[in-house]
Amino acid sequence: MNKYLLCALALGLQQCHPATVIHEASDRELTIAFGSCNRQDMAQPLWDDIAAQRPDVWIWLGDNIYGDTNDMTVLRQKYDDQLNQPDYRQFRQQVPAIIGTWDDHDYGRNDGNKSYPFKRQSQQAALDFLQEPADSPRRRQEGIYAAYDYAVNTKTVKVLLLDDRYFQDSLYRDAQKVYQPNLSGDLLGEAQWQWLEQQLRTSRADAHIIASGIQFLPQQHAYEKWSNFPAARRRLLRLLAATHAKGVLLISGDRHIGEISRASVPGVPYPVYEVTSSGLTHPSSQNSGEPNDLRVGPLVNEKHYGLFRFREQRGRLLVTAQLKGEYDQVFYSQEIAVKK
């Protein structure tokens, strides 16, 4: 098993996050697995398959349980049910680092936003589930955003977990269940925006994984997505250009499908990829296709998880991005050379 070293990392306004992890520098590969949409009361067949990939890190991308309650006792019981799920309990013993953010169902309310009255209590329950230390600044800030650094030989990968629920403005859904864009609305809140900008501007990492519960790039489907908040989406993409962030890879969940999207972002000298992995327990098997002009590869409507394998080769950082299912099935694989 790989050894890990804890170190401090500046968060926001001079906060220090003790849970930042530096992967041992002698390791020449880094494997990060991730997924979302996991019902604690359904069969969970993928944990042994994911463990077989020997991930160094597992990232929860939201809907980690289906809480959907105002009763924090009920919410905590559902988290306990997941922690005690036998396959996941064994998985936790096998994976050196488990980190994550949330989406709406584990936040506490379907499509929940900043108006959810129990968000502070829910935050503590989520951090308990993630086994965040009791003295962590993440427990004192508003929202569960966080940053982690991992080394791959001489290279570094930074993971930035965003909170797109705690500060999210309202969104109107019409009679046809279609979300109408909130043209001036925000997703992150100003404190989180300032934190994200600081993380990107001061980063020396060679690649940056930015995680969100909902999709960043796709714009055509009728469901929750960053493009329902076009001002926030523009701000994020402009921030990537303004901070000259190296090797940005986006990851997201929520949709009960898997797909990889690719976009050209003005001012960013490389294509930006987003890997959506959603459907650990109940994918949308009836969804055999939906418009997404940015999609590369297939739409995956079976149970699956996402996987990054980073490696350094002749001074360059390379990554293989995959969507995988049971019995080592590969639904899609994309080789990416991380650009500086």
TrEMBL record:
Residues 44-290 form the PhoD-like phosphatase metallophosphatase domain. Pfam families: PhoD. It comes from the Bacteria. InterPro entries: Metallo-depent_PP-like, PhoD-like_MPP, PhoD-like_sf. This is Alkaline phosphatase D. It comes from Hymenobacter daecheongensis DSM 21074. The lineage of its organism: Bacteria, Pseudomonadati, Bacteroidota, Cytophagia, Cytophagales.
